[in-house]
Amino acid sequence: MTVQTLLDICRSTMQSAKYCALITNGQGRLNARILQPFEPEMDWTIWFGAHPDSRKVAEIRRDPNVTVLYYDGSDVGYATLLGTTQIVDDLQFKQKYWNPNWQSYFPKGPEKDYTLIKFSPDQIELLSFGHKVTPEPFGLRPTILTLKNKQWIAD
């Protein structure tokens, strides 16, 4: 398969999943939580909403390296993205990346008690039985894509 086909399958897996797990380093202990991300951008940037006083934001401030996992049960596939994050408090971005369904979690809206996590992946691990992305030995390891010089390559 071409790299572009693998990236298309990855994007499809992410869109089908709807939710993902964000895994951060909690000072020697990994912490995972389920989040509802925004759709990945064309450059693979993923945005998450968060409370600025949350544990995940504190952990990201200490260590910006995270893992994001999407699982698509209908395809029996997953995409694991590894990369770095940054906290973004710019009001223009917070308004752009606001989900009105989150009003009960952030009653003051995007202006207060709401921040963004910007995630930029540099590695993708992909496995999809539905799309036959199952390297030998059959299904025991994922296909790995790595971002090098702004280009995704298959390892």
Task: Give an account of the 3D structure.
The structure is a single chain. The protein has helices at 3-17, 55-62, 91-96, and strands spanning 20-25, 30-35, 46-50, 65-72, 77-88, 115-128, 143-148, 151-154. It has 155 residues and is α+β, with helices and mostly antiparallel strands. The protein has one domain (3-154): Roll (Pnp Oxidase, Chain A), CATH 2.30.110. Strands 1, 2, 3, 4, 5, 6, 7 and 8 form an eight-stranded antiparallel sheet that branches. Strand 7 and strand 8 (151-154) form a beta hairpin.
What structural keywords apply?
19% helix; 39% strand; Pnp Oxidase, Chain A; 8 strands; alpha+beta; 155 residues
Query: Which whole number gives the mean pLDDT?
Result: 93
- Termini, distance in Å? 12 Å
What is the count of β-strands? 8
Structural class estimated from helices and strands = alpha+beta
Q: What's the structural domain tally?
A: 1
Question: Which CATH class is shown?
Answer: Mainly Beta
Helix content bin: 10-25%
